[in-house]
Amino acid sequence: MPRLERVPEAHIEYAYGIYLLEPKHRLIKALKKRYKPSIHGHKTWGSSFLLMDYLQHHGIRRGAAGMEIGCGWGGVSVFCASHFRAQMTAVDLDQAVFPYVDVLAELNGVAVEHLQADFAKLKAPELGKQRYLFGSDICFWDSLVKPLARLVNRSFKAGVERVVITDPGRPTFYEFCDMMSKKYDTRLQEWYAIEPDRFEGEVVDIRPKK
Questions:
Q1: What is the DSSP letter of 62?
Q2: What is the value of pTM for the model shown?
Q3: Which residues pair with 133 in a beta bridge?
Q4: E strands present in 1-116
Q5: Residue 187 belongs to domain with CATH number
Q6: What is the pLDDT of residues 115-135, one digit of tens each?
């Protein structure tokens, strides 16, 4: 049973050791008046909790550098910075999400860098600084499958050691996993999160073949 944690006020969730704000929270309402994310960055998605749960069981090195692509509100970045003291960079095409990332980071007492970029255009200099690459719910269109596969290729060539992506289980995600399995050590498995609510989906853990 997860440890019961009393949240300090309404519309705050506590999951996997961090505080997260619900869309009805007063700070989120204030942010929405000035910053309006346009590419699905309007809440913390269930696949983010899948990734947090998975990393609790299959963690990363403390203090290592990691990048969350398609970060949205940056829940995974905040989790890794808090739980593993990771040096996280939150990446999103939509610059309007970064004030939300900053609020969550401040709420949890961590620092998260951010980078406005299309993940399809990330180059070796940025990727080579990272040990890990994370993503949740980032393969939702057919047009994203090949760019994501090419990103993984560039990442491993640049020195990234591990890529972990979670998804509800869309056909596009499975297509991406099939592509990865032909070149890399690819471990696809069903997974579920229990905080703040139960959420089921898939996780793929990709590493270069030895």
A1: T
A2: 0.88
A3: 67, 163
A4: 12-15, 18-21, 65-69, 87-92, 113-116
A5: 3.40.50.150
A6: 999 999 999 999 999 999 999
